[in-house]
Amino acid sequence: MDSVIGRVYQPAFSQNAVWFQVEGIPVGDGIYTQNIQIVELNALNAAFAVIKWKKIAGIYEDVDREHHSTYPTNFHLLTSEEKPV
Prior knowledge:
2 helices, alpha+beta
């Protein structure tokens, strides 16, 4: 049986990540025309977005201040990347 490997990718845009805004957003015939959308991963991504917004707003503590994080379904591990200096 073939299995699907899913990934939730959560970017956060700030003044410190301006380069990411240009290079990180798929445009036109990008990734969304080549991959499937899975409802539970979209819901998880929405929850991560709310949590990140609350971190930026100061509601939750944000120790890492990451610019984006990734959650692959096959490893069950949330990673944070592109932290400010």
